[in-house]
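Dear colleagues,

As part of the handover before I leave the project, I'm documenting each prediction I ran so the next person doesn't have to rerun anything. This entry is a single chain, and its sequence is reproduced below.
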Amino acid sequence: MINKKICIVYSHHKLGDLIWQLPYMKSISDHHLCKITLVTRPKTQAKNILKDEVYIKKIHYNLFRKKIFYILDLFSLWIFFKKEKFTHIYLLDKISRPAIAARLAGVKNIIGVGIGNQSKWITNKKYLSKEDFRFNFSQQTQKFLDMQGIETKIKIPKINFSEESLKSIKIEANLKNRIFSFGVDAFDPWKIWHEEYFARLADKLFSNNLVDQIFLICSNSNSSYAEKIIKLSSNKNFINCSSMNLLQIIKCLKHSICFLGNDSGPLNLSAALGVKSFGLVSNTSSKQLEFSNVEIIKSKNYNYEIDIGKQKIGDNFIKDRELMREISVDQVFNTMKEKQNWKI
């Protein structure tokens, strides 16, 4: 029997999108009874967040650039595939570059979702149609694996992070306090709850003696969101985490009582780490969050039509940040109070 060597390619750059694919990567690993190699973008920082996953043997970074760099990335993938001698390469998104590189490297099983030019290079006969791309990424991959006869037993993303790994992360903060974490930014600005709402919610948490400290999680480029929340709040027991790296953010999350945030990467990361997580959703689809442990807090006028795209998921999202005002501070506080069973 030939030993299998499995590679999975996922080229999306957003951390949250990668996290949604983790159950399906594990399903492929379980199906073939061997560990997998993951090829993804360095921007996901997968080597940091997935370092303790037992079903992943190796993580390889590829930039997946466009124009003139397309050829360079194609060549890089070809070299990598040829060196590693994979028996199977799974492509969990629609780009054709890895499929072409796999063909040139002589890989026998190139199994892809098959949309567009990719269908010319893959070896599987059953693949997704353009109609399937109206649904979210989790639904797409579930259907794709089902077509290949691969069962997905657990659809909820989970990230394992050992105590030893946590202890090795240095952070200047008192982690013995009662800590909440707020995810206050997003890759898309129109997904962001307004700063004054975060500030007012923080004041309610402090005044009801539910928290000692709140971590404000955002990227360094979006530090202004955290700064404004601190300025607007009547309390000053905040830590602006914008200068922290991803591993330090993970340590903050793992020491938090709960997390509240916008529909963005930190929300998906928090839920996958097993932290009680609340997600604020108004103008994006909440459907994908159903495959998680996130407690979804929707706007009062949430439009369920956006759960399915017109041609692809997300093409009918209303990119207006003002819609986030339809999620009130009282609605969020009362939802958290009920779910956390606070006695006030």
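The chain is about 35% helix and 15% strand. The two ends are 64 Å apart (CA to CA).

All the best with the project,
I.
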